[in-house]
C-alpha cells in the first residue's frame, strides 16, 4: 500500500507516506557541545522542522518574524534521508542535531515540528522531556508513524504538544508490521493512533489534509511563540 501511494503522489509535492515533508536545513549531525548552554538571541523565535523519510535538509528561512530551521536526517532512507531515533546512540545524534540547529540561530523560544518519520522522532524527544535548556516550548507531532517510540512517555508537564492526524496512515493499526511497507518503526510494529495519543497524554486533532501531507503552517507557531 505504501509503495502504491508513493507512486501516485506528485513528486513535486513530496507527499510520501511516512517520509515526505518540506526539507530541512543542514546543521551538523553530530550536534552541539554536550553540557554547554545553547547560546541565544533574546526574543529570537524559531521552528525546527524534522522532515519525513526520503526528505532532505533545506535552507533557513524567515517568515512573520520566525526563523525556520530545516536540519538533515541522520540516516539514509528511500533515496533521501530519514530520522533514525533508536537505539540510544542514534537518538543522541537526533537530539544533538536539534540542539545544533537551535544554537546556530540563537533561538530563544522554539517549536519542534516533525512530520511523518520526523514526527515520530519529535515525539521521542517530547517523551524524553527534551526542552533544550528550556528553549523548546512545544512539539507539533504531524501525522506520525505511530510506533513504540512513545512507549513509557514521560514528557515535561510544561512542554506543549499538538498531535495532528490526516487518516492517511490508517493502516498503521495496533500490531501492524512496519516491514510490510519498509517503514522505519521503533519496536518493528505500529500501535495505532488511539494508543499513540494516549501515550503522549493528548488527543488527536484532524489535520487540514486528508492525505498524508505536512501541515505546513499550524496555528501553534504563533500561539506558542508569543513573547513571554
Structural class assignment? alpha/beta
Note poorly predicted spans.
1-32
CATH class, named Alpha Beta
Query: What summary fits the major beta sheet?
Result: 7 strands, mixed
Question: Which keywords apply here?
Answer:
two-stranded antiparallel sheet, globular, Rossmann fold, alpha/beta, single chain, seven-stranded mixed beta sheet
Description:
With 228 residues, the protein is α/β, with parallel strands linked by helices. 21% of the residues lie in helices and 18% in strands. The protein is built from five helices and nine strands. The strands form two sheets. It has a seven-stranded mixed β-sheet. Strands 4-5 form a two-stranded antiparallel sheet. A hairpin with a 2-residue loop joins strand 2 (61-63) and strand 3 (66-69).
What's a concise summary of this model?
The protein has 228 residues and is an alpha/beta fold. The chain has helices spanning 2-8, 88-105, 117-127, 193-200, 220-224; strands at 45-50, 61-63, 66-69, 75-77, 80-82, 109-115, 136-142, 160-165, 204-206.
